[in-house]
Amino acid sequence: MKDFNNSATILEIVRMSTEDGPGIRTTVFFKGCTLNCAWCHNPESISPKPQLQWVGSRCIGCKTCLSVCRENALTLTEAGMQIDRTRCTGCGDCAEECPGTALEMMGKIWPLDDLVAEVIKDRSYFETSGGGITLSGGEPAMQPAFAAFFLKALREKGLHTAVDTCGQCRRDALEIMLPYAAMVLFDIKLIDPEAHKKFTGHDNRRIIDNLLFAADYIRSHVHPSDMWIRTPIIPGATATPENIAGIGQFIAAHLNGAVSRWELCAFNNLCRDKYRRLDQPWVFEEENLLSKSFLEELADTAKRSGVDPDIVFATGATCLSDN
Ligand code: SF4
Ligand code: SF4
Q: To the nearest whole number, what is the mean pLDDT of the chain?
């Protein structure tokens, strides 16, 4: 862990989550991701650097930010705030001075001790619900030494820990994190390597390799049921019977006994505004939500693939169409 510098870039800390592992959890979203999924619901997590965003509804038009910015990166026009991202250094001065909180920095540097102190404030919720802390992102394995020390500190305080990973990372990153992770949430998005490359920027060979390594590690070191597989169900990309059957057959052949749950996470379009605030296009902008009947058909396909783990749909009220 020679690269450990005692601090990490964290996008967000979300409390009272019930979606990122057992019980009530505090989820720490690391900034920076090794994949670039076309459907990404957290586009602000992909860049490893802090980024500025402007929320127009909060802006009172005072122009304080324009005089604060030493890089002349801001222009307030009729159409809203223009951020010249080739000039912006991410210093955060404008966000600090903005009286309307219209400018926000996405991503903050957290020293290790401060982050530990922040998340253990929720200890009573963890103890009553069987919850704990989940490292997510982005990709925690992009800041592996910090993540490992963070997990270690939490375990020493008797807290349950989970790592949520896309698996596209160096093997030694997993090797230093896994000893302190009570469970692992591992994504399998697409089983076909070429389709994986098309939609995420990388094929899945390293991911599958790391998944098999993590499963072996969990079988031999931790409680054997402490791994969940997660698959985003994205129309036109992952949401095909062939992909779901292929992933199911892979789980049945290689992961039964190591995995207790396979989550199918339905597409939603709540992130549309995030892309707009980042001045980024999103190819799923006009995509319709999936129907309940289609999701049930996929669940049947998943069950027929012979998997042992429970199959669970992660579908909030915002994820289903009316038909
Ligand atoms: S400082 Fe904040 S409120 Fe004032 S113009 Fe800039 S963004 Fe708007
Ligand atoms: S973050 Fe810093 S460089 Fe970027 S716009 Fe604000 S003040 Fe200027």
A: 92
CATH fold of 51-106 reads Alpha-Beta Plaits (3.30.70)
Q: Ligand 2 centroid vs 91 CA: distance in angstroms? A: 5
Residue 16 backbone class (left: φ over 0; alpha: ψ -120 to 50; beta: rest): left
Q: Which atom of ligand 1 is nearest to the CA of 54?
A: 7
User: What residues contact 42, with CB distance under 8 A and at least 6 apart?
Assistant: 11, 29, 137, 138, 271, 274
The CATH code belonging to domain 7-47+109-319 is 3.20.20.70
Q: Evaluate if pTM is beyond 0.70.
A: yes
293 CA to middle of ligand 2, Å? Answer: 47
- Is the four-CA dihedral 124, 130, 136, 141 of positive or negative sign? positive
Domain boundaries defined on the chain? 7-47+109-319, 51-106
Residue pLDDT, tens place only, 244-261: 999 999 999 999 889 999
- 183, 226 contact by CB (below 8 A): yes
Nearest CA to ligand 1 atom 8: 59
Over residues 162-170, the mean pLDDT reads 97
Residue nearest ligand 2's atom 4 by CA: 88
Is any atom of ligand 1 closer than 6 Å to the C-beta of 270? no
Residue 288 is predicted with a pLDDT of: 87
Residue 164, number of CB atoms within 10 A of its CB? 25
